[in-house]
């Protein structure tokens, strides 16, 4: 009985895990549908385009379902076993309480590996396609290049800076860009203007009005447009973190300045993907230890709701704590797992 009952527990839990994945999948899919249905109706989008758009969010939805279904299955399954007094029978047969969790560790590691691979490659690709398809498939527009802040470039003795570069085309090299807060320093003087235009095809910067300060300090108002040769090209900034694969995020992190908010957000995203891969294993300990102390399924339902509510509260708060520097990105990413690990160890100590 010592060997057969843990396997029996696994057979009890895995159908509930599959049911949990499907349950949370449909709940999240319904949320996505309700969020975009207004846009689809406004633009008279056909069913095929709507289904295509939704298909791109499947990896992201699946990743969340694979994780949150673990405590659902354990708590609901253990609640049923407790209600029918099967745990008491196992304990009477010499099975230690924590011995019931060992068969669930390997499946949790497998789920974690799937979560890590999905979060690092499939989910970013799906997020990028979801974002792009809104422009190309729904809005019938080209995808705009994200705005670049604090641009600077030195060339031929001249120094070009702009507080903002906003593309007016589709992000290719032969497009126009609007410049804001423009300064051009040349040997003959410094030119500044509130706005300008970057023509990457003609390789020029054009200041729309503004002022010139010559080397002697004399200020002259510019009554007409002033054009400078500038051969740099408009480069699309790196994609957002949720649209970047894990190797791309590592490359971006290596080029970012340590201590900045952008660096902290990138470092957090990398750490979070690894931490999420170990969350199923942590849930086996925490939810399993909690489930072993349940007396019936009514308590199991309440435990599932409370368990997931606390997890999501920590999971959604951690990125902001990392972004503002309240916690290091590594600690913020692992915070939910650390909290539930401590919780699980305390319960396990009481069950020993």
Automatic annotation (TrEMBL):
Keyword Transmembrane helix: yes
Record's subcellular location: Cell membrane
Stretches of the chain forming a coiled coil according to its record: none
Keywords: Cell membrane, Membrane, Transmembrane, Transmembrane helix
Primary localisation category: membrane
Topology of this chain in the membrane: Multi-pass membrane protein
Pfam families the record matches: LptF_LptG
Chain ranges passing through the membrane: 16-41, 53-79, 99-119, 274-292, 298-315, 327-349
Entry-linked PANTHER family: SLR0882 PROTEIN-RELATED (PTHR33529), YJGP_YJGQ FAMILY PERMEASE (PTHR33529:SF6)
Protein name listed in UniProt: LptF/LptG family permease
